[in-house]
Specification:
By secondary structure, this protein is an alpha+beta fold. It is 35% helix and 24% strand. The protein has helices at residues 5-14, 28-42, 80-85, 149-155, 173-182, 187-206, 243-246, 256-263, 282-294, 311-322, 341-355, 371-379, 391-402, and strands at residues 22-25, 47-51, 62-63, 71-74, 91-93, 102-103, 107-111, 122-131, 136-142, 160-165, 209-219, 225-227, 231-234, 267-270, 275-279, 301-304, 329-336, 362-368, 385-388. A hairpin with an 8-residue loop joins strand 5 (91-93) and strand 6. The longest helix is centred in the middle third of the chain and has 20 residues, at 187-206.
């Protein structure tokens, strides 16, 4: 589960991670008040205004309606409200949102941390995530902070520092010092980075997260180390242990169909194709999408109804798929292992009758326990549903539907 920057920073702050202070606002007047409060608390006279959406590239992104960037600087208190107004309610398009963009409902008014001092501010990149290939957590760091880390990895891989954490012993002090040393830090900045990494790793483990990305981590002109941005991805499977974190979920940032599917216990991901698919099992769902492409179509979704599929889950799946106007056909592909195919067939018939006016062709491929009996139920239902038993038969029927 993704959370907003302002939420992520509050989580990090609770674990002792130094952050760029800021106050969230949802209207221009509140933004002005936030700036006044920041000035009183931190002494800042410049204010950074950041759009809060679940996507990166906000600084380079543009608000469609006003042309404003997603991250702007107000050098006077009087400018804060106007700059906030140019962002709030607008559609921000970045390289991660796609051309449709995301509506900005909140902004973060943050203090200026790039102030002059004894040395030049310097940006770094730092992340913690699970390396599935190595079977352990890894700290990734780079001196090229503020840039897209993918570009750094492709063009200058030698600038990516990696430190793997043995799960049996956890993060060791020498590993933290090694990362700080490889970043070229010395003196006070070195000590501050060591404390920063230690607190960040404690937060990562304490929240059961799947990824922390701090880009940039800033060394200020007086050698403080702090998080200017924060991208935190929480592990959905661990949220039952973190009710406070689960409450941070922003449903407005998620696809409405995916939200609805989650409420019904379905695993659904919307795609851009023309054939809706409903399958029991993630592996079979991936194979089904391949089959749809081989038949000349494009999958409109990934939808796993789980091993215990029944009339209720099938009906919920139907209703979700049918909300996509691009769907020209629906392929149901079920392996009857945990659940018998005849029960699935009855579930399909019940769901079809319950929904009523279904205007797209439906192909049901059943294989496994009582597959023949299930196909007979489909064929004798009198509904506009075609049955199939083999993958090739199902693919041929999808192709015939798409060709009219």
């Amino acid at each position: 589960m993704n959370i907003h920057e302002y939420q992520a920073k509050e989580v990090l702050k609770g674990y002792g991670v130094r952050i760029q202070n800021g106050i969230v606002a949802d209207n221009p007047e509140a933004a002005h008040e936030a700036a006044v409060k920041l000035n009183a608390e931190t002494g800042t006279s410049w204010y950074v205004i950041k759009a809060q959406i679940h996507a990166g590239g906000r600084g380079k992104g543009k608000i469609q309606q006003t042309g404003s960037n997603g991250v702007v600087l107000a050098k006077k208190l009087e400018d804060v409200a106007d700059k906030a107004k140019a962002i709030l309610g607008g559609t921000l398009v970045t390289h991660q949102t796609g051309p449709e963009g995301k509506v900005v409902n909140k902004i973060l008014v943050a203090e200026d941390v790039y102030y002059p001092g004894d040395s030049e501010p310097k940006e770094y990149y730092l992340s913690i995530l699970l390396d599935r290939a190595q079977g352990c957590n890894v700290i990734m760091a780079s001196t090229e902070g503020g840039m897209d880390i993918e570009d750094v990895a492709e063009n200058s891989p030698e600038k990516i520092i990696k430190e793997w954490i043995d799960p049996k012993v956890g993060l060791q002090g020498f590993q933290i010092r090694k990362v700080a040393f490889k970043l070229g830090l010395t003196g006070t900045a070195f000590k501050e980075m060591v404390k920063f990494i230690a607190a960040l790793y404690k937060a990562y483990e304490g929240t059961d997260s799947s990824q922390f990305e701090i880009n940039p981590v800033l060394k200020t002109s007086d050698d403080k180390i702090l998080a200017v941005d924060a991208k935190v991805n929480l592990d959905d499977n661990a949220l039952y242990r973190h009710k406070d974190l689960a409450d941070l979920r922003d449903l407005s940032e998620e696809d409405p169909l995916e939200v609805e599917a989650g409420k019904s216990g379905l695993n659904y991901v919307k795609l851009d194709g023309n054939v809706g698919c409903m399958v029991n099992g993630a592996g079979l769902a991936m194979a089904t999408m391949d089959m749809i492409k081989l038949s000349g179509g494009e999958p409109a979704n990934f939808l796993d109804v789980g091993g215990g599929a029944n009339a209720t889950t099938v009906e919920a799946g139907f209703r979700i798929i049918l909300q996509d106007p691009n769907v020209k056909a629906i392929l149901i592909n079920v392996f009857g292992g945990i659940v018998r195919c005849d029960r699935i067939a009855n579930g399909v018939v019940e769901a079809y009758k319950s929904i009523g006016d279904i205007r797209v062709p439906i192909i049901v491929r059943l294989q496994g326990t009582n597959a023949v009996e299930g196909a007979k139920i489909i064929d004798e239902s009198g509904l506009k549903v075609a049955s199939a038993i083999t993958l090739k038969e199902a693919a041929d029927k999808v192709q015939a539907v798409l060709q009219g």
